[in-house]
Amino acid sequence: MLPANGYIEVKNIIGGGIGDDGLPVAASADYSAPIAARIQTLRHDKEGRYEDGRFIANSYHIFIPLDMNFTADEVRITLNGRCMGNFTVQNIEYLTLVNKVKITV
To answer: What is the pLDDT of residues 50-75, one digit of tens each?
Structure first.
């Protein structure tokens, strides 16, 4: 396995719900400590267009050690020292043969 070239931070939702007065209480987001990871770019497409402009479509495979109990809906990716943004987790695979967790975003 190649060495880590970036890291991910898991988004945790804190609080929220219904307050004592019966009114909704907004949830807040916090990020975990950085987790070293091997990140592969699957797609970095700058050709996306919509009526008022353009967008960039990215997707990545992220590999982290298998001993981590990974459960997350959203992660922040930093690749080669550059923050790539926040991404929704699409798939999680446990690769026991190579002791890695493969996360697709």
So the answer is: 677 776 678 899 999 988 778 889 99
- Other residues' Cβ atoms within 10 Å of the Cβ of residue 101: 19
Q: How far is CA 71 from the centre of its chain?
A: 11
Given a contact cutoff of 8 angstroms between Cβ atoms, the answer to whether 5 and 79 are in contact is yes
Q: Whole-number mean pLDDT of the chain?
A: 86
Distance CA 38, CA 70 (A): 15
State the number of CA atoms in the 13 A half-sphere of 41 facing the CB. 10
CATH (domain of 39): 2.40.10
Provide the residue range defining the domain that includes 70.
6-14+27-104
Which pLDDT band, with edges at 50, 70 and 90, does 43 fall under? confident
Neighbouring CB atoms inside 10 A of 20's CB total 6
Helices (H), 16-55: none
**How many beta carbons lie within 10 A of that of residue 11, not counting itself?**
18
Count: domains in the chain: 1
